[in-house]
Structures are given as structure tokens and as C-alpha cells.
Design brief:
The chain has 463 residues and is an alpha/beta fold. The protein is 30% helix and 29% strand.
Length: 463
């Protein structure tokens, strides 16, 4: 959530270095002065909207300018998951109390049941895993984000003359580092749109002009497979959003010979929490990359299945408290916030070795990551079960080296139903983010295995 402090810093750079590049996107570069002027053009439309608005996170300079205009106008901005199904988007806007949907092309749509009340603090609203409709909406903390922007700029040398590379949609919390921290520090944020981010050759071209590259392991693997020669200009390569495979490290070291390689861990609720500088020799010897050590100011504990604290070597769920932590989950039904616990239960299982290093050991229950996005298999299953022609369904995930996981649905239809797997996937696209739509739907003619209490066998959730 960029704050009023962020706006003052951005404005200071616009006044001090107006011709310096603020954004680069494909063959287009936008200066700080041009971005400021673009934001000013959106001001009239923004002024007529209520306190909370929805801005589709298209990866363009116009969207960034629109967010700046909303912040200047004292608005709270919901950036919904990219490619969210239409039904789920309407429900998410209602949950957040959005009065209008604003588009960077000038479109202004007043939403049904709009809430025009002002908000206590402008900023961004991000969503959690982005699975089905009532996904939790996270209200970021202004002071916490300011602390994070400053930490990121200092840690990775982000400032005038530096270009960062942003590979994920603007609604991801990763954008706090590679977009908003860059603009707060007088740097240039390189915006790789969805087409460029999915094409290894385009992504490689963008890296040639970047000093700081933050990307998921999926994108980093794409780079190692597509680049024809090394990229020596990059100074920092940050892997985040999912587990960094040890087998990928050697290729990254060869591709980025002048860069320091980092593994960065966090969540939407807490922002980044752990940082580890990756050594290729260590990764090869251990066969895994550690999460690292807590960022200054972060407290972390591990608890076992009974809730007891793990004090030495051992395995359990990771709980963290950070100086960047969000204010809470937006709870419109109760008219306020549901605070996020301190410490926050991440749902991530970790193992601490005898030398004090932490390693990721998967997710609690049925949460998995697909292309860097948390996906709740149970919620996907519930969406399928709501279809009128579906009698029963079971959703599982299989490991995939590129996407992290692929989702598979086994579905039993009601008598005389004619629903096909393709039709069911189309139905899911309207209800779920693209990452949560099953890649395979199998129509079965027999019963689906359940435990005595009606749940999926735990060993079958992850195949």
C-alpha cells in the first residue's frame, strides 16, 4: 500500500529529475514528469468516486498512473487478481465495498450496492490466495509499507539509474518491491506484461536493461532455458513467490555472472520475512535452498502439531511477525477489520536444521501454489460441486516442474447429465482465477473415494 509518504517521495523525484525514466514497458518509456501528468488527467474521474474503488491490474503505465491518481485523491484501491472470473470479481468488489470500477482507458462503472463513504487511510487492498469469490481482502498498513519500501531500496541498491524488472501482475504483493519501491526511490520500474512474462525471449530482452530482477522460480527457469548468452548487467536476482529448486541455482549463476542471487520469502499478510543469499555450492551440497534468516525486525517461531514451540532442530508450522505486517482483513459485514494475528500463522511447514537454517517443507492442509499463486484445493472443489449437474467431485494437485503444481478434478455427474470436462472448465473460469482452474477434468462413472468423515484422503491431495 503506497502511502502519503510514498506520494511525497515520488513527487520529490518528479520535481528533482522530471526527465528521468519512471516506467519502461515494451518499447515505451515514461518519465517521472509524464507519469505525473498522466495521473493528473485521471483526477476528475477519481474525484467523483467513493472512498474505495476497484482498478483492474493491467500491466501498463496508465494503470500505474491511475493508482497514483487514486492515492492522491485519498482513495483505497482494490487491485483484484488478474483474469479473475466475472462473477468472482463482482463478489470481491462487493466484499471490499467498492463504489466504482475505474479503467485506465477512462471507463468509470458505478457498482451496485456502492459504498461512497470516505476511508480512514488511502492505499492498496490486495487479496490473499485469490481462489473462489470470498477471498480475504488484505488492508496494508501505511507505516509498514513505508518501512518495507525503504528496506528494499537499501538492501538491493534501488535508486536513480536503476531499473527493476516486474514479472507478475500488479495485484501481487511482489509489486511493492519491483514497482512501488522503485518509484519511491527515483528508479525505473520495468513492466513485463502477461505476454512478455510468458515468453522467455521477451523476458530475456527485458533483463538486458535491468539491474534488479525479481521473479518467481517459474520465470527464472524460463530465462535459463531461453537466454542465448549471459546477462552481466543484472546486479541482484531475487527469487520469490515459491520454493527455489536447488537444481536451478547453477544455471542462474551462469546466466547472471555479475549478480548476487537471493531467496526471498513472505506472504501477502506479512510482506517479506526471510532472506537468504544463495551460494551455488551450498545449494548443490544440500540439495535445497534455505528460506534464510529473518529480515531485521522480524520475529519467527515454529510450532508443532500440538501448538508447542519448537526450540531447536525440528519441523512444524512457521509463525511470523514483521514490521511490514498488514492491518488486517477487510470485514465489510462487520463494518471494519479483522486483525491479522501477531504472530501470523503462515500455513507453511518448515524444518529447522541443527545449524539454524530453515527449509520449506510444503503447505499445511490442502493449500498449494500454482504459477506462484496460493490455491486452495478445497475451495476449487466447492466451486465444482456447486454446478447443478455435478454429483460429486475430488480435486487434487500433482507436482509440476514449471508451474509448481497442476490441478486435476475427478467429477461424477448426476443421472442423465450431459456436462463435459471442457464445459466444466469454462464454468470454472467464470468463478475462479486462471491459476485455480483445473488443467484436467476427468468425468468418472463410479464413486469417489472419501474418508469416513467425507473428506479427501490427505495422502491423495498432493499426488
Amino acid at each position: 500500500m503506497p502511502s502519503t509518504s510514498f506520494l511525497s517521495r515520488f513527487s520529490a523525484w518528479a520535481g528533482r529529475t522530471p526527465s528521468a525514466p519512471a516506467l519502461s514497458c515494451a518499447d515505451r518509456t515514461v518519465s517521472y514528469a509524464e507519469l505525473t501528468a498522466m495521473a493528473a488527467k485521471f483526477a476528475p474521474a477519481v474525484s467523483h468516486a467513493g472512498g474505495t474503488v476497484c482498478v483492474p491490474p493491467r500491466k501498463t503505465p496508465e494503470t500505474v498512473a491511475l493508482v497514483l491518481a487514486c492515492l492522491s485523491g485519498g482513495k483505497r484501491i482494490l487491485l483484484p487478481p488478474a483474469e479473475l472470473g466475472s462473477d468472482a470479481l463482482v463478489e470481491l468488489c462487493a466484499q471490499a465495498g467498492c463504489s466504482h470500477l475505474l479503467g485506465p482507458d477512462g471507463d468509470v462503472v458505478r457498482l451496485a450496492g456502492a459504498d461512497a463513504r470516505p476511508v480512514d487511510e488511502p492505499g492498496l487492498l490486495l487479496t490473499t490466495s485469490g481462489t473462489t469469490g470470498p477471498a480475504k481482502t488484505v488492508v496494508l498498513d501505511a507505516a509498514g509499507v513505508d518501512r518495507f519500501l525503504g528496506w528494499a531500496a537499501d538492501r538491493f541498491g534501488i535508486g536513480p539509474g536503476t531499473t527493476t524488472l516486474s514479472c507478475v501482475p500488479l495485484n501481487f504483493d511482489l509489486s511493492l518491491l519491483d514497482v512501488w519501491a522503485a518509484l519511491a526511490a527515483g528508479a525505473c520500474a520495468g513492466l513485463a506484461g502477461p505476454e512478455a512474462a510468458a515468453d522467455g525471449s521477451h523476458l530475456t530482452g527485458a533483463c538486458r536493461h535491468a539491474g534488479v530482477v525479481q521473479a518467481s522460480p517459474m520465470h527464472l527457469r524460463m530465462l535459463t532455458e531461453s537466454a542465448k548468452r549471459p546477462l552481466p548487467a543484472v546486479r541482484h536476482v531475487i527469487s520469490t513467490g515459491d520454493t527455489l529448486p536447488a537444481g536451478l541455482v547453477a544455471g542462474l549463476a551462469e546466466l547472471f555472472p555479475g549478480a548476487r542471487l537471493w531467496n526471498l520469502y513472505g506472504s501477502t499478510e506479512t510482506n517479506d520475512s526471510f532472506l537468504h543469499e544463495v551460494d551455488p555450492g551450498e545449494a548443490r551440497a544440500r540439495g535445497a535452498v534455505p528460506l534464510g534468516k529473518p529480515i531485521p525486525g522480524v520475529d519467527a517461531v515454529i510450532v508443532d502439531e500440538r501448538g508447542g514451540r519448537v526450540t531447536g532442530a525440528g519441523r512444524g508450522e512457521l509463525l511470523v511477525s514483521t514490521p511490514f505486517q498488514a492491518r488486517g482483513y477487510l470485514d465489510r459485514g462487520r463494518g471494519g477489520l479483522t486483525p491479522i494475528g501477531r504472530p501470523f500463522r503462515t500455513g507453511d511447514l518448515v524444518e529447522r536444521t541443527a545449524d539454524g537454517l530453515l527449509f520449506a517443507r510444503g503447505r499445511r492442509d490442502d493449500l498449494v501454489k500454482v504459477r506462484g499463486a496460493r490455491t486452495n484445493l478445497h475451495e476449487v472443489q466447492e466451486v465444482i460441486l456447486r454446478h447443478s449437474e455435478v454429483l460429486d467431485a475430488r480435486v487434487t494437485a500433482t507436482a509440476d516442474p514449471a508451474a509448481g503444481h497442476r490441478i486435476r478434478a475427478s467429477v461424477r455427474l448426476r443421472p442423465r447429465a450431459r456436462l463435459t470436462g471442457l464445459q466444466l472448465r469454462v464454468y470454472c473460469r467464470a468463478k475462479l482465477p486462471a491459476t485455480a482452474v483445473p488443467s484436467t477434468v476427468e468425468i468418472v462413472g463410479h464413486g469417489i473415494t472419501r474418508t469416513p468423515n467425507g473428506k479427501n484422503p490427505k495422502e491423495g491431495i498432493l499426488s
